[in-house]
Specification:
Elements (H helix, E strand, L loop, with lengths): L1 H6 L1 H21 L11 E8 L5 H16 L5 E9 L2 E8 L5 H14 L12 E6 L6 E7 L4 H16 L5 E2 L9 E7 L1 H6 L4 H11 L2 E9 L2 E8 L12 E5 L2 E4 H4 E7 L6 E3 L2 E10 L6 H13 L8 E6 L3 H29 L3 H24 L6 H30 L4 H24 L11 H35 L24 E2 L6 E2 L2 E2 L6 E2 L15
């Protein structure tokens, strides 16, 4: 591989440029999430029959659907829950099943089995989800002087409509509070005295609270539509609504009870700092949505809300983007520390700033290659793959340092930069490859995982394996190519000097060598002056190292 890189330098250069440009744009456009996508589809079927008891719901609706859903393909198991007026069935599919196909199959089966259900059963609601579905943030609402009914109305009809325009965000119904309803409270004794039943009151209210078209009237050249508006402007006016006429008098709502502007029955309570409040969950839609972008868009939309009371206080809590940003900052910090320490080490032991650049180039390129391949495989930037990169950063630097040290060893022995780069890279190629496989094989058992653990830990293993093999490629190509063209090293040359006799003892002439501290790779050796007899057949230009 070093020989190929030196033979085709422009090809290697173009590969590096393509990786740097295309990889960077790919990484910027990648979806960002807290956890990896867990490809275990779950389909929820909710069926409603108002007022039916749980035992009847289970016997007539839940059991009927459960038996029919066994016809679906790739079903792992199902769970059901029967409540008053509602049947909820969750169908779990095997890993790898297409979620859209799963939802389509269950929806078709549910509609085909609808004729077997009791008359009056509403059509089932079929929703798709997966094991990793959770809100990316929550928008909370509270305010002095606003009760839970006011907060629910504001969240449902004002806040929710304005923040749902954020790209990639899915905004479901708010939690907490209660929907506004006009409640008519009646006295059973008074109803009995006036010979009225609850059905009589309900029927009278429905018949009296209407808007009906009454035709049109043409006056001159204009045609006017006429409406009979029998709706009440407020709850207080409903107290004068007639329920029954007896002789010349009518029985009014006020005669048997009262109408109150209240709320529906409340089934969940949300408290924020001890105060009853309402929150709107924000989910991430499919199609490569970015958690950080969604949360930032929600925060911006919340600040620009209009047509809301001044005393309404909104806040964004349970922000998942904080954890993603923390993971990204940790990776950047680890990379910065590793690059700085590696650069200092190379400067201290090799004394070459250019060699420092050669090694540091391989680290960001390896990371970009890893993330680009992960994006091609349908992955995302999440805490697991970022954790794998943070784990392997120190190992990414080792491959380039080993190759660089061996190349410098040949250059210090007097070989030209081109020859030293080729020999130095070829000599350690198999050793570095073996070390790379040794690190990568540690994560091989991840392939035996199944279920949720497989989807959680596979990105971590991919982050380590892909980046370390990319590091091997760049260490075997970029580092030799860089050293062959841009790196220099001072060789250790021997010089001769003839000594004249200094005394009458007749000492013979000899030769000595200029001694200079030398290094064996990254380890400093012991330094000692050397004396070489002049009779040795070494020329003055031969390289000589004293360690």
């Amino acid at each position: 591989m070093p020989k190929f890189a030196l033979k085709y330098p422009f090809f290697i250069l173009m590969i590096c440029l393509v990786v740097a440009l295309v990889g960077t744009f790919t990484v910027v456009s990648m979806p960002v999430d807290l956890f990896p996508q867990i490809d275990m589809p779950v389909v929820v079927v909710a069926t409603f029959y108002n007022g039916m008891p749980p035992q009847q719901i289970e016997a007539d609706i839940t059991n009927t659907f459960e038996r029919f859903f066994t016809l679906a393909a790739n079903v792992d198991h199902s769970e059901s829950r029967s409540l008053t007026g509602v049947s909820i069935i969750k169908i779990y599919f095997r890993p790898g099943t297409d979620p859209n196909v799963a939802v389509s199959n269950i929806a078709n089966l549910a509609m085909a089995d609808l004729r077997r259900l009791p008359p009056g059963t509403l059509p089932p609601v079929v929703l798709g989800m997966d094991a990793s579905t959770q809100p990316v943030c929550l928008v909370t609402l509270r305010g002095q002087g606003l009760n839970e009914t006011n907060l629910k109305d504001l969240a449902q009809f004002q806040v929710r409509n304005q923040i749902s325009s954020v790209q990639g965000a899915s905004v479901p119904q708010p939690y907490g509070g209660t929907y506004r309803q006009i409640q008519i409270y009646v006295d059973p004794l008074k109803m009995e005295a006036h010979n009225l039943s609850l059905n009589d009151v309900v029927q009278s209210v429905n018949n009296s609270n209407l808007i009906l078209p009454a035709g049109d009237v043409r006056i001159g050249s204009k045609d006017f539509n006429i409406y009979a508006n029998a709706q009440f402007p407020d709850a207080k006016s409903m107290n004068s609504m007639p329920l029954k006429t007896v002789g010349n008098s009518s029985v009014l709502v006020a005669d048997i009870g009262k109408a109150v502007d209240a709320g529906a029955l409340q089934y969940n309570i949300v408290r924020i700092d001890g105060q009853r409040s309402v929150y709107v969950p924000i989910f991430k839609q499919g199609g490569g949505s970015n958690t950080i972008t969604i949360v930032n868009g929600i925060k911006s939309a919340v600040k620009k809300l209009v047509d809301i009371p001044e005393n309404l206080k909104t806040a964004v809590v349970f922000d998942q983007s904080v954890f993603v940003k923390l993971a990204i900052s940790n990776v950047i910090r680890e990379a910065t520390i590793g690059l700085v320490l590696t650069g200092l080490m190379i400067l201290v032991f090799l004394g070459s700033p250019r060699a420092t650049v050669a090694v540091l180039l391989a680290v960001p390129l390896s990371m970009v290659v890893c993330l680009a391949i992960d994006n091609y495989m349908g992955g995302s930037i999440n805490t697991m793959i970022l954790g794998g990169l943070a784990l392997v950063f120190s190992r990414l630097i080792d491959n380039g340092v080993i190759v660089l040290e061996n190349i410098f060893r040949h250059m210090e022995n007097g070989e030209k930069a081109y020859v030293a780069s080729e020999k130095g890279g070829e000599e350690v190629s198999m050793a570095v490859l073996a070390a790379t496989f040794t690190t990568a094989i540690v994560f091989f058992p991840v392939t035996f995982f199944h279920g949720v653990s497989k989807y959680i830990f596979t990105p971590l293993a991919l982050g380590v394996v892909l980046s370390i093999f990319a590091s091997y490629f760049f260490a075997m190509t970029v580092v030799p190519l860089y050293c062959a063209n841009l790196s220099t090293c001072t060789t250790r040359k021997a010089t001769t000097r003839t000594n004249t006799p200094a005394s009458s003892s007749g000492s013979t002439g000899g030769s000595t060598l200029n001694s200079r501290p030398c290094s064996s790779g990254m380890k400093a050796g012991l330094i000692a002056p050397c004396s070489v007899p002049s009779s040795l057949p070494w020329s003055s230009s031969a390289a000589w190292r004293c360690c």
